[in-house]
């Protein structure tokens, strides 16, 4: 009985909640266009491999916020929402370009207009 419980828990924690995307990983901000929006965007973005559709933003003050994201790898579209799994208000809608070790997000950020984020993959 204990082995079955352990096995099920291990499966849920390590396999059931995965939905890998091409942009999974930890990304540090290296450039924002336009530059006057620098204070409004996170300094680090975590696209979580082990938690399907979960992204975490880290601000320059060290605060963390969990959000929901979805990626269409065929059209290179990415969307982010305010709440993980509950979605809520849309934070970002745009496209991504991945040229490892850099990720470029080009789209609308929190309704303020066009934005380009250049991010560098943290190893």
Verbal overview:
This protein is mainly beta. It has one domain (2-121): Lipocalin. Helix content is 12%, strand content 51%. The chain has one helix and eight strands. The chain has an eight-stranded antiparallel barrel. A hairpin with a 4-residue loop joins β7 (102-109) and β8. It starts with a helix and ends with a strand.
Largest sheet: 8 strands, antiparallel, barrel
| Rg measurement, Å | 16 Å
Number of strands: 8
Low-confidence stretches: none
> Mean of the pLDDT scores?
87
- Helix count from the secondary structure assignment: 1
Number of domains: 1
Strand content: over 45%
**If you consult CATH, what is the topology?**
Lipocalin
Strand order across the largest sheet: 1-2-3-4-5-6-7-8
What is the 3D form? elongated
The CATH first-level class comes to: Mainly Beta
N/C terminus separation:
40 Å
- Give me the CATH architecture, please: Beta Barrel
Q: Give the helix proportion (percent range).
A: 10-25%
Structural class: mainly beta
- Secondary-structure element order, as H and E? HEEEEEEEE
């Amino acid at each position: 009985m204990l082995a079955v419980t352990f096995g099920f828990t291990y499966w849920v924690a390590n396999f059931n909640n995965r939905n890998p995307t091409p942009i999974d990983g930890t990304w540090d901000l290296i450039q924002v266009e336009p530059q006057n929006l620098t204070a409004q965007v996170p300094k680090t973005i975590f696209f979580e491999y082990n938690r399907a559709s979960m992204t975490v933003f880290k601000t320059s003050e060290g605060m963390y916020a969990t959000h929901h994201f979805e990626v269409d790898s065929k059209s290179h579209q990415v969307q982010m929402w305010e709440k993980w799994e509950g979605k809520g208000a849309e934070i970002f809608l745009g496209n991504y370009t991945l040229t490892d070790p850099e990720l470029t997000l080009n789209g609308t950020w929190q309704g303020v207009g066009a934005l380009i984020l250049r991010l560098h993959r943290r190893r």
